[in-house]
């Protein structure tokens, strides 16, 4: 009986130990999950290819920077001793947007840095709110990795315009001159169309908005083979990043910051617009205040692709040669 009693006690002790171990493991998993929840879920960018519309070697020196928000794809190229020029692209056009205009600026002596915004191109998509803070932080993360980019000229295209303005507003000592190409962000929330107000209201969660945009043509459908089409097809996080940028990004209601940088930068700021832009109409320039405005009369919104030489010439008329530091 003593043996049986001893065996029973050991069995009970084992069960207690097993239960304790199980409880400890469960608590560990719960606590670890809570710890992991402090980091955003990240949808990885597509595997790199060498085909159109986005060959990964479209520019020299392509690299990937690991950050807490996922990887950032960036390119640094042009004369090493040239004046530095940082590009910020639009809401659906990653780094290849600069492929036609870059040669003119490199020839003029500029050292170029461009990158893919989160959720675009070959940059990952963190599942967080895609607001001004995220995109300004993305630039600061990139610059922290490239300390030799201490001061530079800054150029923002479309959605990249208000991102560039916000960066210049918060870090004016880093920016020498500022160029905005067909910049979004001027229209205040009060002046938005009802459909856009609904998007910005958050009455529709992101996942519902993503499904709605498949059936309701609130935005133009990208043609097959285009950069926007490629991202929608192959980037797992593109649709989330795109819709979150519509809902929370500086694409609208950035007029106060635009006006502030126009005031603070003065003659060191130029805006270049397509005279036939029907995506971000030139009439929204009224929200910016008094600006140095250069117009390409026959161009629409995508001036860097349809009129790269004229756009580059307006930029260089303002910036001067890139080798004159």
Overview of the molecule:
An eight-stranded mixed beta sheet has the order 2-3-5-4-7-8-9-10, with helices on both faces. Strands 1-6 form a two-stranded antiparallel ribbon. Strand 7, helix 4 and strand 8 form a beta-alpha-beta unit. The chain has 325 residues and is α/β, with parallel strands linked by helices. It has eleven helices and ten strands. 40% of the residues lie in helices and 16% in strands. The radius of gyration is 25 Å and the shape is globular. This is Related to 2-hydroxy-6-oxo-6-phenylhexa-2,4-dienoate hydrolase.
Q: By helix and strand content, what is the structural category?
A: alpha/beta
How many domains make up the coordinates? 2
What is the number of E strands? 10
Distance between the termini: 95 Å
The CATH homologous superfamily of the largest domain:
Alpha/Beta hydrolase fold, catalytic domain
CATH architecture of the largest domain: 3-Layer(aba) Sandwich
Q: Could you state the order of secondary-structure elements as H and E?
A: HEEEEHEEHEHEHHHHHEEHH
User: What's the main sheet like?
Assistant: 8 strands, mixed
Helix content: 40-55%
Average pLDDT works out at 88
* Share of residues in strands: 15-25%
Q: In terms of quaternary structure, what is this?
A: single chain
Backbone CA Rg: 25 Å
Spans of at least 5 consecutive residues whose pLDDT stays below 50 are: 1-36
Strand order of the largest sheet: 2-3-5-4-7-8-9-10
Looking at CATH, which topology of the largest domain would you report? Rossmann fold
DSSP helix count? 11
């Amino acid at each position: 009986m003593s043996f049986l009693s001893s065996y029973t006690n050991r069995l009970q002790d084992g069960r207690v130990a097993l239960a304790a171990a199980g409880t400890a493991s469960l608590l560990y998993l719960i606590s670890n999950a809570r710890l992991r929840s402090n980091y955003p879920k990240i949808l990885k960018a597509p595997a790199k290819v060498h085909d159109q519309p986005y060959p990964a070697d479209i520019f020299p020196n392509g690299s990937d920077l690991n950050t807490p928000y996922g990887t950032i794809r960036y390119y640094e190229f042009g004369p090493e001793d040239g004046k530095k020029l940082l590009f910020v692209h639009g809401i659906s056009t990653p780094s290849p947007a600069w492929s036609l205009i870059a040669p003119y600026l490199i020839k003029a002596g500029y050292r170029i840095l461009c990158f893919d915004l989160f959720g675009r191109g070959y940059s990952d998509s963190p599942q967080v709110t895609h607001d001004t803070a995220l995109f300004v932080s993305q630039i600061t993360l990139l610059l922290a990795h490239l300390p030799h980019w201490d001061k530079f000229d800054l150029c923002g295209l479309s959605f990249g315009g208000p991102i560039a303005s916000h960066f210049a507003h918060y870090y004016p000592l880093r920016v020498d001159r500022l160029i905005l190409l067909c910049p979004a962000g001027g229209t205040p929330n009060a002046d938005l169309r009802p459909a856009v107000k609904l998007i910005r209201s958050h009455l529709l969660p992101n996942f519902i908005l993503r499904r709605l945009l498949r059936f309701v043509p609130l935005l133009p459908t990208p043609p097959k083979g285009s950069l926007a089409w490629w991202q929608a097809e192959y980037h797992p996080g593109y649709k989330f990043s795109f819709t979150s940028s519509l809902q929370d990004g500086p694409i609208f209601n950035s007029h106060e910051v635009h006006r502030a940088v126009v005031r603070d930068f003065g003659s060191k700021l130029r805006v270049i617009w397509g005279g036939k832009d029907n995506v971000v109409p030139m009439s929204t320039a009224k929200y910016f205040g008094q600006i140095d405005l250069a117009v390409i009369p026959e161009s629409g919104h995508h001036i860097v692709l349809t009129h790269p030489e004229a756009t580059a010439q307006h930029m260089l008329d303002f910036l001067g040669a890139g080798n004159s530091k």
